[in-house]
Write a structure and sequence with these properties.
heterodimer; A: about 70 residues; alpha+beta; two-stranded antiparallel sheet; B: Cytochrome p450; 6-stranded mixed β-sheet; 15 helices; about 50% helix; binds protoporphyrin IX containing FE; binds iron/sulfur cluster
Chain lengths: ~70, ~400
């Protein structure tokens, strides 16, 4: 995928506890599985207007399932 | 920590007289003296107290265990039994915790809770109608605050609301202070478990479209699940789901009464209600202690916590941390970062019911502000009976007029 200077989102769904905080923070980006409430992505790329919401989601995610990595692809 | 710094403290310290929602003076003193005060608890165990926002976040996501059976676990009250066997994944760690929690997480997802909104609005409207039709003063706790979350969690689980008297009383015994003692605590656990088991038998015969029926299905088809967890999980959801929210509604109503500008902001712009609910969760922080035991060494500034030592996170203090929340002792409807509060805890055990609780609070606070603009206390605030000794802060009753 295309390299950008925007932070890359990393998802470790094995850590997810299904709290849904990411969905609350960035409803256009995140969703939860019907089966076990764990995180899913609504889309694999997004434009810069959503970066702020994604950062917020990472901050409020309680389990450490979401982290922002080095700059790189989305 | 050296023994020299260990002080015996009243824990939890009393709230300031006349200001039930204020920070205890003892906390101000303890944290003025140390970033991580080390205290002797009424139970005889010791704990490092965490009051800084960044420390609470770091520790609750760090190398800690929630297993109450651990010898270093900072049990607060003398004579209480560990809740480890009674409350399922609340006291589990790691993969076990996630496994059992994920069996029920989807029922509390953002989407699932959004679907419940019309039902919540209807219940709140009916409860307020009921209170308005009755005598003044009325007790807001029993008229509105307790019935709302109880009806909601009963509906989700498929537990008959008509059984509420018995499980409310039992769950009260589970969550309340030392006045109950170890024997009655264990007896309450047994009775609640028996109740859930009986209900499960009925559901197996006649499954419904509810969480308990779905759970039974899971347990019946997966031998690797520990059967005892079925009753324990239902117990956890019942206990965690109603008294917490009830306390938050009652104390939230008290805060709205004491800070009229907040209810005024909601009336002027109902769109601010979600932020007001977050701000009330931050300001009130009903979770009085969140206990853990360190599983590895943790270093915070010049304090070193060794593996096996007890830790208690204090959401109330973290949520008033001036480095994160400007002017923290003010209740500000438009505070930009109110939703960063730690009132639902943090880390893997963060409240499972967080989205549900939020929705309940939003609906009820908006209705209270808009339908009861003249709400006021019927007794002096100093006369309210506070639940100081409970893991969840609360008030026994809230007599109001309107
Ligand atoms: C305003 C209302 C509520 C507040 C302030 C609240 C607060 C909390 C806090 C602070 C914790 C974390 C405890 C810890 O880490 O040791 C927690 C856990 C929990 N809460 Fe809530 N809660 C509320 C409502 C609810 C509701 C409505 C439910 C519905 C079922 C619920 C279910 C749970 C469960 C199951 C846990 C254990 C989660 C785990 O261990 O993974 N809570 N809650
Ligand atoms: S906020 Fe974190 S723990 Fe909660 S659902 Fe999203 S990824 Fe999972």
């Amino acid at each position: 995928m295309e390299k950008t200077d925007r932070p890359a989102l990393r998802i470790q769904d094995e850590l997810c506890v299904g709290a849904g905080e990411c969905v609350r923070a960035a409803p256009e980006i995140f969703d939860q599985h019907d089966e076990d409430g764990t995180v899913t992505l609504r889309r694999v790329t997004w434009d810069e207007t959503f970066d702020e919401d994604v950062r917020h989601a990472v901050f409020v995610c309680p389990s450490g399932a979401l982290t922002l990595g080095e700059t790189g692809s989305q | 920590m050296s023994a020299a710094t260990l002080t015996a403290e009243r824990f939890p310290p009393p709230r300031p007289a006349e200001r039930p929602l204020g920070i205890p003076e003892d906390y101000r003193r303890m944290f003025a003296g140390a970033r991580v005060p080390h205290v002797l608890l009424p139970s005889g165990r010791t704990a490092h107290l965490l009051g800084r926002y960044e420390d609470v976040r770091a520790v609750l996501t760090g190398p800690v265990s929630a297993d109450g059976a651990h010898p270093g676990f900072p049990m607060v009250r003398a004579g209480t039994a560990s809740t480890s066997n009674a409350l399922s994944f609340f006291r589990m760690d790691g993969a076990d915790h996630r496994r059992y929690r994920r069996l029920v997480a989807a029922d509390f997802s953002v989407a699932q809770v959004a679907r419940m909104r019309p039902r919540l609005e209807r219940i709140v409207d009916e409860l307020i109608d009921g209170m308005l039709a009755g005598d003044q003063p009325a007790d807001l706790a029993t008229m509105i605050a307790l019935p709302l979350p109880t009806q909601v969690i009963c509906h989700i689980l498929g537990v008959p609301y008509t059984d509420r008297a018995s499980f409310q009383q039992l769950s009260d015994t589970l969550t309340r202070g030392p006045e109950h003692g170890r024997e009655s605590f264990l007896a309450a656990v047994m009775r609640l478990q028996a109740y859930v088991e009986k209900l499960a038998v009925a559901k197996r015969d006649e499954p419904g479209d509810d969480l308990l029926s779905a759970l039974i299905e899971n347990f019946d088809h997966d031998d690797s699940l520990d059967r005892r967890q079925l009753a324990a999980m239902v117990l956890l959801l019942l206990v965690a789901g109603h008294e917490t929210t009830a306390s938050m509604i009652t104390l939230g109503a008290l805060a709205l009464i004491e800070h009229p500008h907040v209810a005024e902001a909601v009336r002027a712009d109902p769109g601010v209600t979600p932020n007001v609910a977050e701000e009330l969760l931050r300001y009130i922080s009903i979770a009085q202690w969140v206990p853990r035991v360190a599983t590895e060494e943790i270093v915070l500034g010049d304090t070193t916590i060794r593996a096996g030592e007890g830790l208690i996170a204090l959401p109330l203090m973290a949520n008033r941390d001036p480095d994160v929340f400007a002017n923290p002792d003010a209740l500000e409807p438009y505070r930009w970062n109110a939703d960063r509060h730690l009132g639902f805890g943090f880390g893997p055990h963060q409240c499972l019911g967080v989205q549900l609780a939020r929705m309940e609070l939003q609906v009820v606070f908006e209705a209270l502000a808009c339908r009861l603009p003249g709400l006021r206390l019927a007794v002096p605030v100093g006369e309210l009976a506070l639940r100081q000794q409970s893991a969840m802060f609360g008030v026994e009753s809230l007599p109001v007029t309107w």
